Amino acid sequence: MHAMEGQIEPKWWDMWPQDDRVAFLRDMAALQTRYEEVRLLHPGVDRMPDAAAEATSPTLFRMRRSMVHVVYLARNITLQLAQRDKATSFGSPFAWFREGVVGKVTAPEFNAEPLRTRTEVVHEFESCLDRVRRGEVNQAPDLEDESSFPALIALLERLRARRETQEQEAIVTAQSRLRRSSTACTVKEESVAVARALYKLPWWPQRPDKSDLRDPIKLALTELRKRRRSPTEREELVHRAPPSLPPRRHPDPSLTLPSQAAIIAAVNGVRSQIQAEESPSSLSVHAEPHRPSHTVTECRLQSLGHGHGEVARGGLTARQRAVYGRAGTRM
Known about the structure:
Residues 224-254 are annotated as: Disordered. The protein has helices spanning 2-5, 10-15, 18-41, 58-63, 67-84, 95-100, 107-111, 115-133, 150-181, 187-199, 211-227, 233-239, 257-278, 294-304, 318-329. By secondary structure, it is an all-alpha fold.
């Protein structure tokens, strides 16, 4: 049992969720029972199984490849650096990890990744800690270094793309539901509906004042409606309905691809602001600045544009590129 105790340091144990602690203690009780049975059946065998094996303790095996262990290793790296050079100011000692990882991946997201991916990421942080202890690293690690953290970089990129896709789906779903429930919707109604849908996503920070997301969306949609050109006389004649029929209602401009592009641009602006507030510029690690490129907006429009003319065929006309680019850059 001493071998099992050596697998968990006290400070790491303090970080474990209560349910995982209980599960580990149950593993230990089952292991003790199994050990006693083996001693009775085979008196000459007095050896415990491999402490690091999954069969020995499934809970410990899982926790060693969890987000809790990654955070624990990052704290040890920070502590080692701070103790070595107390005269060096790292701003916030944990800033390098907060900027590089926190906010980009949650514990449930990380723990849901394949075992091999989690194992590789943990190994990268363990290797970094070993280098710090040997004196090979004297400053906060660069988590964007592909030679030291390739698995982490690949993981964060996949999660970023997955989050963007889920945000797009949330926006489209909110707009579609609003369109089905109402013949016409106001900018305020749409901004509230979209903001509520985005706040349901697990990674969006739950702030007391949720206007920080609703207001930019409302502003983006308002500006988009102002820029929408009025129909020409020829278009009015083409769409004019016969006197005996009710007038044909033009589609709400807030339920279009340019609207989605404007919303996405506004959401990205809020995300950049949140990251800037949580990661002051005085910290030692320099986060990659947000680059609101209209080419990203075009890619998102292509993914959302199945059945919408040129966008659905994988390309944008010059006029569409200009319209969507303004929707993304003016926010």
